[in-house]
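Much of what follows relies on a compact textual record of a protein's fold. A record is reproduced here so that you can trace the correspondence yourselves:
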Amino acid sequence: MLNVFKNLPFFKKHQEEIIDPDEIIAEKWEADFTNPDQTRFELRDMPSHTGFIEDKSLVLALKRQNCLAWIENPLYRYGDFVIQAVLRIDALGGYAAAGISFRMVDEVTNYILLISSKGYFRIDVLRNRNPLPMLGWTEIPGDHRDTEKPVQVKIIASGNHFIFVINGQWAAEMYDDTLPEGQVGFVSASYLAGPEKIDGEHPQVSRAYLDSFSIESRILEVEAVYEEWNHDEKKSSASRRRLAETYFAMGQADDSLTQLKYIWDKKDYSPGSGELLLAAKASMMLMNLDDAEIYLNTILDSPDSDAADLEKARFLYLAERYQDLRKYALGLLEKYSEDLTLRTLLGHAYWNLKDFSAAAAAYDQAAALDQGNGIPAKNAANAYDILGEESKALERYLKAGRHFLKNNNYNDLGSVIPRLLYLDPRNWEVHALTGKWAFGVEDWQKAGYEFGEAERLRLQDNTNPPEDPALVFLQGLLLIQKGKRQEALAFLEKALALDDGHSIFHFKLAETRFLLYGDPRDDEMKKHIAIALQQDPDDGWIANMAAQVALAGGDLESAAVHLLKAAESLGEVPAIRVNRAVLAFLKGSADEALELLEANRSEDPEGIMANCAGNLLVRLTRYEDAEAYYRKALSIAPDNLEYMLNHASCLIEMGLYGEADALLARIHSISPTPDVLELIAFVAAQKAEYPRAEAALQAALEMAPGNISAIVSLGWIYANTFRWKELEEILNSLDSMDLNDDSRKQYLELKEQFEQATLKTISCAACDRKWRVSKNYIDVPPIRLFSEPPDDLPAGTCPECGKTYCVGCAKNSIDEDGRFLCRDCGKNLKLTDPGLKKIISDWASRAFPEKKKKGRPKKDSRE
């Protein structure tokens, strides 16, 4: 009997467990990496990474550099815990890292511990994908730093206190209450792809191995481990020293000093010169100058005094003891004659002591020691400026400005611009440098003015200085900024003619040609892309451009290769995802394409992915879905004209003409173009607002007189308003233009509409001859014929039966007077239709031009 009840629900001993992923669980769990179904980690193959089980390890393989990816364990959340893991890294000859993510709120908010392939570790908190370093790269404890060998990691979390143990040694601790609980995961990062790669459809640039993983979250067990590792005897001096160095490098001087003082508090501990020097630097960073002086003097009184020599000079400068600094620096010059910092500090001492001549000399000597640094040259320029030596000041300001520009240091460059313009306002290079600075800070109007001034003054310069290729190139970019790509093309070509050694010149010329003409077969464009790729093979943007051209030309295989290269360089940036989505779409996978484009605002800060999704959905005729994506794109970039135009076009396809009209009016107010005016005309016509449509098209033709598309659209407006005379003029103008295949088709369609509306067809009742004559009344005077017309002309219409005959069919049926007769009724044929009369009249005018000028014909002629 019991066997009967055994299958009832209440009798089952092992009911299927209902798992709440938001539950904060207390458990002891160890991963089983022999069975993929038992790991709890989500193993997925993604465009950027893939996860799988191999040889009893969990493997996270990355497919491109500059990539951070993880495999989450989504089953439970943990508050306090002890994680123990063993991991390895194979950077394949490059630079990579692996580690553990914990207290994961979601994929963009968590803590991360990373171990690098170079033997360092770091700790970050990720907030909405923005990493905040809690501890920068710090050496792994112990002697060996070979991370291809297993690295043992232990993370202890108790409230807001975290302890990190690496290879059995206390490595670091931190206090942070940002994330109180969350999930865990395995994470890897690739910073630089090496020469080795694992081949496949998506080559792997690095591999991270998780050989074992366990988590303990039962309260008593966690407390026991926490108490064990929170004792001072576990926290070695070597680990704290490494932490102090890392905190100082991070600019966290307080934390650096705290770690040092923990070490020094140990009984009978005597700090070395390295620790004292670090303490002095941290104290100076905090402007605790009394402490800094004590630390420095202690070193200077020791055998390792050299370590503090230069730091003492910095201290004297911070303490504003300029007399002491001058004396001290001069005493060190023989020993450190090639030291840039010492020369600069000596210059500062002279400057503050008002000895500007000596300051200028010291700064010049500092500038000579570092030809790539603009600061010493600027300091020297300031000194010569005060001394009134304007030519020397100008020379050094220009030198400093060139260095700042080369290093994209627009703040310091901007600081020298006013003095340059004051010292020599007619110097063409001064204006060129000013324009380049303005371009760098996106002051387009000032940049354009300064470029113009620079060229004007260069042409007036008696020394005939050569043109600056960079200046010409930037002038081209300014025109592109204004939407004048056609004009920009000449400047880009000229810049290349002056200097063809810069990949950016070739890249921008190719990009401009592609955006102008949209022809993936353009040999000139393809040549410059190839040169740019050759000159800078690691530039991801050039590779991305090559991929776009390949996509446009249908070469999907080449596009995939270029996109892979671009992704290796740039990572998962929106432009790459857009092109990867287009590639997937062209391969026939619309769902994959749309999935690639799904992103939040932080991932798509310019809205290009949302706009691309809208474009793809339009191609699928899913207009309502597309419209939602266009709205999303515009919510991110509300003034983007391309997005507005795409949105308006989509609204037109949906028949929402009112919304489209309002959006087009806004676009027109920002940037009036013939294309926008054509769309306004189309919408107005759909709303039967023909006068407004006509006005919009006339305005478009004023902007672009030969715009065939606008002329055809105007013709349709005339057709819809029955203005056949104006339409005939449109057709005549189109007939004289050089039309491509599409334009010729539009012309013929419009002409057919005109002929159907204005002409009628009259057929011969006896054969297949037809005549097309005007439907409108035509006043034709009476005609007298002196000879029989050709067979293909109309002979007349029977007044009895209404049949019309051609001359060829009627000439066998004539009466005694030679008049044409109806073959059925025998009645005389009459040319009663004005259109047929017009045909005969036109023939007579051509056949007898002289007779038209004479008087009435003789009696024996026929009418």
Q: What stands out?
A: The CA atoms of residues 301 and 845 lie 123 Å apart. Residues 741-758 form the longest helix (18 residues). Confidence is low (pLDDT under 50) at residues 1-16, 852-863.
